[in-house]
Amino acid sequence: MAEIGGEPVKHYRDLAFMGFIEVVSNLRTILNNIKFCKKDIGRYQPDALILIDYPGFNLRIANWAKGKGIKVLYYISPQVWAWKANRVHKIKRDVDRLYTILPFEADFYQKYDYEVTFVGHPLLDVISNEQQVSPLSLKSDKPVIALLPGSRKQEISTMLPIMLSIVPRFPNYQFVIGAAPSITDDFYESIRSRKPNEQVKIVRGETYALMKTAHAALVTSGTATLETALFNTPEVVCYKGSKISYWIARRLVKIKYISLVNLILDRPLVKELIQQELHSKALNRELRKIMGGPDRERIIRGYTELRNKLGNKGASSRLAEDITQFLS
Fold first, then answer.
1. Same domain, 92 and 152
2. Is 142 in contact with 174 (CB distance < 8 Å)?
3. How many domains does the chain have?
4. CB-based contacts of 306: which residues, under 8 Å, 6+ apart?
5. 69 and 166 fall within a common domain
6. Are residue 263 and residue 322 in the same domain, yes or no?
7. Domain that holds residue 104
8. Confidence grade of residue 300 (pLDDT, cut at 50, 70, 90)
9. Residue 209: which residues within 8 A CB-CB, separation 6 or more?
10. b/e per residue, 130-150, with b = 16+ CB within 10 A?
11. Sorting pLDDT into bands at 50, 70 and 90, what band is 4?
């Protein structure tokens, strides 16, 4: 939004906290940000409010805005199908128009007699445009293994050392870390320097070029799992959080898979290494499986089915058109 003239008054990186313990420990900051947001909206006096993702924060703002008589539109449905299904009733009460990007979400909401609009996944447009990008320019001709350890400092701190631990076991490959936009190079370097290895490079602003170039990838659970799949790059999905946060999540979250790839297909196409399963030995074993042979071929075939389920390109255009009609 900033790229087309929007003026952000608060950056998302100052608002994003992952995990139950992390949210509790930063509760004062979160509450202050909610107060700031309400004040800023009140000063602007909009006719409508378009909320994007971030349900823990935005559903509170939706409730407040609805009480002020502001029309509320919400893009990218909260993952109530995974946990806190009772939030559906609050969404029905506070959100005038809900837009979904995952194909199974419309059926979920139908169970609650709530009509939503599936616009398709915006990544289909983004990655289609990025297909023109050239592969990474690297000094070595060795095949590339991409390391995508997440976008938040706490998950990078946990995931990246485990990913780096298997580098010496693949001397015929080069490993490249895809840096998140909001994380400095110094932060990655502080982790990489613990296991110095000239095979490991860091690239910034070229994540899609990295995905396109990579022979395989190790990816922290999140949107990057879907992006990697749309580039036809076989992957191993990784996740490890604090013990307490994971213990709570296991009792609250009601999904079979953590990666978007497997959730959309409703089957385990890509391997997920979660919590205690994520260690050097397992990561080495699962990465070798997808370097060639039947497992690699099976995954690439599954990616074709995945694209078909995501719908057609043009999600953002369909969203904009529907919002314009709804508000006119």
1. no
2. yes
3. 2
4. 229, 230, 261, 264, 265, 269
5. no
6. no
7. 2-121+313-327
8. very high
9. 133, 134, 135, 136, 203
10. beeeeebeeeeeeebbbbbbb
11. confident
Are residue 42 and residue 191 in the same domain, yes or no? no
Whether residue 98 sits in one domain with residue 23: yes
Tell me: do 164 and 136 sit in the same domain.
yes
Quick one: 303 and 322 in the same domain? no
pLDDT in tens, 30-72: 788 889 999 999 999 999 999 999 888 899 999 999 999 999 9
pTM, whole model, 2 decimals? 0.81
195 pLDDT above the threshold of 90: no
The verdict on 163 and 63 lying in the same domain is: no
| pLDDT for residue 295 | 97
CATH for 215: 3.40.50.2000
